[in-house]
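re: ur question from earlier - yeah i can do the single chain one, its not a big deal. heres the input i used so u can compare w yours
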Amino acid sequence: MRKLISAGILFALVASVASAGNTYKWVDENGKVHYSDQPPLPQDTKSKPAELNRGGVVVRNPERQKAEQEAKVSQQSEEQRLKEQRRRDNALLKTYTKPEEVDLVRDRALEGIDAEIKASQLGRKAVEERLSKKAKQVANLKGRNKPIPQDLQDDIQHDQDEMKRIDDLVKTREQDKIVVRQKSEADKARLIELLSGKKN
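and the output i got, formated as tokens:
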């Protein structure tokens, strides 16, 4: 009987507060439940407050909303991942008919990168030769206690910048070779799986 009376009082309390507008329910640090038409201060709550409608039913629970939103984002992310995987799988099956073809494409890509690196290294050698000649000019001028012309200084700086650009390019292309090999290995392994699945 006491439980029924307590429940009735609680319902009446919630209903009376709810009739005034938005109602908030929260639990303080001592585990006590509170109801109010004003949201609590952050330091007064153990959990985020829930918003109730006029009938005392929870209509907005921040913690539940956050969990639902995170679950929705996770599901969308997984759906996007699967969609992208299907796209890649279709591209593999349209591009290759057997794993050996992946190796051929890899080798052609590596040959192209190696050719670019070789050309860059030849260009660097030419720049080195120019710098060597200009260094001799500078040494000759200094030996005669003559000033170094500004245009000569500018040319030297330009060649030094060019050498750095070539070195950076070669370094980048060497990294590209690693990426090509890794992608080729992954594509080949996936293609074998897909072809095996088709046979089964």
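The helical segments are 2-18, 62-95, 99-143, 150-199. not sure if urs matches, ping me
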